[in-house]
Design brief:
The structure holds two protein chains of two kinds.
Chain A (H helix, E strand, L loop, with lengths): L3 E7 L3 H12 L4 E4 L7 H4 L17 H7 L57 H4 L1 H5 L9 H15 L1 E2 L13 E2 L6 H14 L6 E2 L33 H11 L3 E4 L2 E9 L4 E9 L5 E11 L3 H11 L16 E9 L6 E4 L6 E3 L16 E9 L13 H8 L4 E9 L8 E9 L5 E6 L4 H20 L3 E7 L37 E3 L14 H20 L4
Parallel strand pairs in A: 1-2, 1-9, 2-6, 3-4, 9-18
Antiparallel strand pairs in A: 5-12, 7-8, 8-9, 10-14, 10-17, 12-13, 13-14, 15-16
Chain B lengths: L2 H6 L10 H13 L10 H14 L13 H12 L2 H22 L8 H23 L8 H18 L2 H7 L10 E5 L6
The chains are: A alpha/beta, B mainly alpha.
Chain lengths: ~550, ~190
């Protein structure tokens, strides 16, 4: 007889790592199935390789990337060293309709995308959880800030978040480690904004899952810069650096890499899942694993794909629907009069943040919801020499010095849930393991486009207000998916007729299957979503364990 | 493992910034023969080496030759540029010689240093003129030699400043700064 695990967790990324830690610590023998390869930090992390040892000096082998990773290479982090943390697009196909590009950026390895993630951490507020209900869009979230706040506390205390408390209702403060410093230009912009916009629009240092002091056995950041290539000192949070070691510590974790989950095994007699079907990533043999509960943490689109391939959890007809991402790329750049005799030192893995100010206390006539700005300041480097006249000794001496201070705002806006944005199984295509692939049909709508336009207007307005010059507003045209904040394919709700999951991330139709990654989101807010996935995962794990104790699962 | 131990375990990346150590290596690099080139023929290579060293000469720090900029140009031509970009670069290189012969009666590498400087000033001004025209929305198609010089300058800067001498001796960029200071005097940077 095959062993029956107390819990099976599908995926070892940011959500799966949390599911593993919480379930193991609460006493469950837990099997974590990861589709990709194992990761050994000592040999796989590459953050300290000097640029001169890279064959293409950091520009990447773009011919090789275009051959096997034409989609993945669109992501800034898929660079000369970190491309190995992104999937091979030829092995992992999906389809999109003509004229609706969608960039699905994926990492299949232990740790998933938590290895290359952007590390920005912002709590949601009731402005976000109440929006659908107030505006009659999508379905109402079954939870409010009060339900998730203790779980934000719980995960943040473990993760270690650097940030500055600001006391804003739309962006609740967390449990912060010391904030990183602003640089000279950012301080000028912050002061100027305070003068012109008061508390309506503020600039704060980014809130990031990076340690500014030693924390729970992990070391403070040493400011080398390229976090997306790994971190041998475990200074930024990832599953590999933090949650999986904690799960392993309990003695109850079984981690199986190279385990591509095909589907959930469902017993129609009991109405419950009994385990999962797996294709071994290396041998391609079919395997089965048995578990009392299943946590799907495979990512928004992969978890939907697994459920669709299982033929379960879709009595609402909402499974795969309401695919969302954020919309990014409206903003402005400018030059700042900051001290010419000063500069910043070290590679700060963090930027600035301007919390949402649209539709917070005032109402915009052109759109609902809002956006936040990320970005930052800095001085130009030698790269400016390509567009300068001159050559020779004086030219070289000039480029040794830093250039003028610049500053940029880059907006991230909310996307609304719409049933016409969906994913489904493409019956004509399978991946390298014979598993039916997804067809993704998703496009931005009028509200998102209006947000994007407004970003460039307000960014330029703020730069003008703080005395910047050479201000250049911009709006860039990014396909959905590329923000890598995809959400919504198995939304939580209050009604089994219109949602896939209840308020505890539990499938309405299959009580012992939980989905706690981005699939569960009923709206996107405009904040980076990972910390919310973490909090919801920890909350759902606690619920599941209590329900098992009550013999309800 | 505490932070200090962790940094020690990194394999000594930080000591690469030692300037004496680096100077020894770059001297060695100047003496050693270059690697076999895959695209540039000897004459093309001589021209590339000369132009690169004129853009970033050896001063109080080593220059483009010591940083083996020509080897990176050869690599970019062979493995990074597409066929059209490579042909454009090499055609431009040939046109520099053609213009040089017309003006001074010799190939670029055969010219005196002042003549070479005059030729580069001419190209630099032409490239700047094209750039200004572009900014005003009046695109001018660059000639092959102008296109070559624009690309050559870009690649020379990349290859030099990302080389070991560029990073360690010219820019003093530590791989592991160890801290972040938001706003320090330039001369205190890294101290």
């Amino acid at each position: 007889m095959a062993k029956t695990y107390d819990a099976i967790v599908v995926g070892s990324g940011i959500s799966g790592g949390w599911a593993a830690k919480e379930l193991c610590e609460r006493g469950l023998n837990t099997l974590v199935l990861e589709a990709g390869r194992p990761i050994n930090p000592e040999t796989d992390y590459v953050e300290h390789v000097p640029v001169w040892q890279m064959k293409f000096r950091g520009m990447g082998d773009h011919k090789a990337r275009m051959a096997t990773q034409p989609i993945q290479q669109q992501c800034y982090a898929c660079d000369e060293m970190a491309y190995k943390f992104f999937v091979n697009d030829l092995e992992n196909p999906y389809t999109t309709p003509e004229g609706k590009p969608f960039s699905w950026i994926r990492g299949r390895q232990v740790g998933g995308r938590s290895i290359m993630w952007g590390r920005q951490v912002y709590r949601w507020s009731d402005l976000d959880f109440e929006a659908n209900a107030k505006e009659g869009i999508g379905v109402d979230w079954p939870i409010r800030y009060a339900d998730i706040a203790p779980w934000y506390d719980h995960v943040e205390e473990f993760v270690g978040i650097t940030g500055q408390a600001e006391g804003l209702s739309q962006l609740p403060d967390g449990k912060f480690l010391p904030a990183m410093q602003l640089n000279c230009a950012e301080q000028v912009v912050k002061d100027g904004m305070a003068k012109h916009f008061g508390r309506e629009r503020i600039l704060t240092i980014g809130r990031a899952a990076v340690l500014t002091q030693d924390h729970r056995g992990r070391s403070a950041c040493h400011y080398c810069g390229p976090c997306h290539r790994g971190c041998i000192t475990r200074s930024y949070f990832s599953s590999v650096n933090a949650t999986l070691p904690a799960a392993r510590e309990t003695g109850r974790l079984t981690l199986r890499p190279w385990s591509v989950v095909h589907s959930v095994i469902y017993d129609a007699k009991t109405g419950k899942a009994t385990g999962v079907r797996v294709i071994d990533g290396q041998t391609k043999h079919a395997l089965e694993f048995k578990g009392r509960i299943v946590f799907l943490c495979a990512s928004t689109l992969e978890s939907a794909r697994i459920l669709l391939n299982s033929g379960i959890a879709n009595s609402s007809g909402q499974l795969g629907k309401n695919v969302m991402d954020h919309i990014m790329g409206g903003g402005a750049n400018g030059k700042i009069d900051a001290p010419a005799d000063r500069i910043d030192f070290g590679n700060r893995p963090n930027g600035i943040y301007v919390p949402r100010f649209r539709n917070v206390t005032t109402k915009s006539k052109d759109f609902v919801r809002g956006y936040g700005f990320q970005g930052g300041g800095g001085r130009g480097d030698w790269g400016r020499g390509s567009d300068m006249m001159g050559f020779g000794a004086d030219f070289k001496k000039e480029l040794r010095k830093p250039g003028p201070w610049g500053f940029g705002f880059y907006g991230f806006g909310e996307m609304l849930p719409r049933p016409e944005n969906f994913c489904e199984i493409d019956k004509t295509k399978v991946d390298a393991w014979g598993i039916p692939a997804l067809k993704i049909s998703c496009a931005y709508g009028e509200n998102e486009k209006a947000l994007l336009k407004d970003m460039s207007v307000t960014a330029a307005e703020m730069l003008a207000a703080v005395g910047a010059h050479e201000i250049e507003p911009f709006t860039s045209d990014n396909p959905p998916g590329l923000v890598i904040h995809e959400m919504g394919t198995a939304r939580m709700g209050r009604d089994p007729k219109t949602s896939v999951l209840n308020g505890n991330n539990q499938c309405w139709d299959v009580k012992n299957v939980f989905v706690t990654d981005g699939a569960c989101m009923a709206s996107t807010a405009c904040q980076n979503p990972s910390i919310t996935y973490m909090a919801l995962t920890a909350r759902a794990a606690a619920f599941a364990v209590e329900a098992m104790k009550r013999r309800e699962l | 493992m505490n932070r200090r131990e962790a940094l020690l375990a990194l394999g000594g990346a930080a000591i690469l910034a030692d300037p004496l150590f680096a100077a020894g290596r770059s001297l060695h690099a100047r003496i050693a023969n270059g690697a076999a080139l895959k695209v540039l023929d000897p004459h093309q290579n001589d021209t590339v080496v000369t132009v690169a060293e004129m853009i970033i000469p050896a001063t109080d720090t080593p220059g483009a030759t010591a940083a083996k900029v020509n080897e990176f140009v050869d690599l970019a031509l062979g493995e990074w540029f597409d066929d059209k970009e490579r042909k454009g670069f090499l055609d431009g290189l040939a046109e520099v010689d053609a213009r040089s012969r017309k003006r001074f009666g010799k190939d670029f590498t055969g010219c005196a240093a002042e003549q070479q400087a005059e030729m580069l000033q001419l190209l630099d001004a032409e490239v700047a003129g094209n750039r200004d025209a572009d900014k005003q929305g009046l695109h001018r198609e660059p000639s092959p030699s102008q296109r070559f010089f624009g690309n050559m300058k870009r690649v020379t800067l990349l290859a030099y400043f990302t080389s070991e001498v560029g990073q360690t001796e010219e820019l003093h960029n530590p791989i592991i700064p160890g801290r972040y200071d938001g706003c320090v005097l330039l001369e205190q940077r890294g101290k």
